[in-house]
Design brief:
Elements lengths: L5 E6 L3 H12 L4 E7 L3 H11 L3 E3 L2 H5 L6 E4 L6 H10 L3 E5 L6 H14 L3 E4 L6 H11 L6 E11 L17 H17 L5 E9 L5 E11 L3 E8 L1 E5 L2 E5 L2 E5 L13 E5 L2 E5 L6 H15 L7 H20 L3 E2 L1
Parallel strand pairs: 1-2, 1-4, 2-3, 4-5, 5-6, 7-10
Antiparallel strand pairs: 7-11, 7-12, 8-9, 8-16, 9-10, 12-13, 13-14, 14-15
Helix pairs in contact: 1-8, 4-5, 5-9, 7-9
Length: about 325
C-alpha cells in the first residue's frame, strides 16, 4: 500500500524555493511538488524543466484553480504574502508562507482570519525551529544545566549590497534586514524563552543607495525578569548566524543557528562546571521536516506546533522594531 502524498504548488520561482524548499520537499515521503507558477510563462516552463516539476502555470491564479493541488508554498516578496495567502485560502489550499508572514501584525491577522474562515492551515516558514536541535537546546535549559537564563545573543548577517536589483532593497515591498534576517533572532528568543518581550529598542543604518531600507540593525528586546535578547542583523556585512544562551552556571553556543549544511554543522556546545562539550545533532533536512509537520497536521487533523497566533506575536515585535529604528526610541509592547 502506497503512502498518500500531498501535492504542492509553488507560487513563484524565488531562489529560496529552488535552492531549499523544493529540494526539501523532494526528500519527503508524504509530499510531492506537482506544479509551479510564475507571471513569466517562460520562467515557469524553464524552472519546471530544470527541477522536473510536472506542471508549469503562467499565472498564480491558474495554479490556485488546479483542484489537484493540496498545499501552496508562497515565497513571493513580502508585500504579496497577504494577497496570495488570502486568495489561496479562498481556493481551499493549505498554505506554507515565507517569513515574515506579512508586513504588519494587522496584515497577519487578516491572513489568519481568512484561513480560519476557509478551514485551511496556515504555517509560517521559519524552517530552523523544526530542526531537532532546538528541542535539544530547550531540554538542556529545562534540565538546569546552565542555571537561570540571564540573556540571549544572536545575529544573522550577510552581504548582498552589490545586487541593486534585489527585492530586499524595495522599502514598499517589505525590504530591509529586520524583515529578512532580523526576524530569526527575534523568533528564536521568543521560542527559547517561551515569552513575549515587553519592550524593544533598535538602532539601524538606513541606506539611500538601497531604497532607504535598513541594511544593518542592532536591537534589544526586553523580557520579564530582566532577561533580554541582544541581536544584530544585516544585508551589508560578513555572513554569520550564531546564537548564545547565557545562564548563571553555563553557556549554550550555537555557531550556525539558522542555516545548516554539512553533517555536524547543526551541532552546538554547552559549557558548564568547567567543561565544554559538543552536542551532536542528527543530520536532517529542516525544510523537509517543516513540510512534513504541516502535511501531518493536514492529513491527521493534528494541531500545528506553531499556530498563526505565534506569527501574529512575531509580527507585533517586528512592527515595534521597525518603529523604534525609524523614530530612534524605545517602544513598549
Amino acid at each position: 500500500m502506497s503512502i498518500k502524498k500531498l501535492k504542492w504548488g509553488i507560487l513563484g520561482c524565488a531562489g529560496i524555493a529552488k535552492r531549499a524548499v523544493i529540494p526539501g520537499l523532494r526528500l519527503s515521503e508524504i509530499n510531492e511538488v506537482a506544479a509551479i507558477a510564475s507571471r513569466d510563462s517562460d520562467k515557469a516552463k524553464k524552472t519546471a524543466e530544470e527541477l522536473n516539476i510536472p506542471t508549469a502555470y503562467s499565472s498564480y491564479e491558474a495554479l490556485l484553480e488546479d483542484d489537484s493541488i493540496d498545499v501552496v508554498y508562497i515565497p513571493l516578496p513580502n508585500h504579496l504574502h497577504k494577497e496570495w495567502t488570502i486568495r489561496a485560502a479562498e481556493a481551499g489550499k493549505h498554505i506554507l508562507c515565507e517569513k515574515p508572514l506579512a508586513l504588519t501584525e494587522k496584515e497577519a491577522a487578516e491572513m489568519a482570519e481568512a484561513c480560519a474562515k476557509a478551514g485551511v492551515l496556515l504555517s509560517e516558514a521559519f524552517m530552523y525551529r523544526y530542526h531537532p536541535r532546538y528541542a535539544m537546546i530547550k531540554e538542556v535549559i529545562a534540565a538546569g544545566e546552565i542555571g537561570e537564563i540571564r540573556g540571549i545573543r544572536s545575529a544573522f548577517t550577510f552581504n548582498g549590497a552589490a545586487n541593486n536589483a534585489n527585492v530586499r532593497f524595495r522599502k514598499e515591498w517589505g525590504g530591509g534586514s529586520i524583515y529578512d534576517v532580523g526576524c530569526y533572532p527575534i523568533n528564536a528568543a521568543r521560542l527559547l524563552l517561551g515569552k513575549e518581550p515587553e519592550a524593544v529598542t533598535v538602532q539601524a543604518m538606513f541606506s539611500p543607495e538601497h531604497g532607504d531600507v535598513d541594511m544593518m540593525a542592532s536591537g534589544l528586546l526586553e523580557f520579564e525578569g530582566s532577561v533580554s535578547l541582544s541581536f544584530d542583523c544585516g544585508m551589508w556585512a560578513a555572513f554569520r548566524n550564531p546564537l548564545e544562551v547565557l545562564g548563571t552556571d553555563g553557556i549554550i553556543e550555537v555557531p550556525s543557528a539558522y542555516v545548516t549544511g554539512e553533517p555536524g554543522s547543526a551541532n552546538f556546545f554547552v559549557s558548564a562546571k568547567g567543561e565544554r562539550r559538543e552536542v551532536e545533532v542528527p543530520h536532517v533536512n529542516q525544510y523537509t521536516l517543516q513540510a512534513d509537520h504541516l502535511a501531518r497536521a493536514i492529513m491527521n487533523g493534528t494541531p500545528l506546533q506553531f499556530a498563526p497566533s505565534d506569527s501574529l506575536n512575531n509580527m507585533k515585535v517586528i512592527d515595534a522594531c521597525l518603529l523604534s529604528a525609524r523614530e530612534r526610541t524605545r517602544v513598549i509592547l
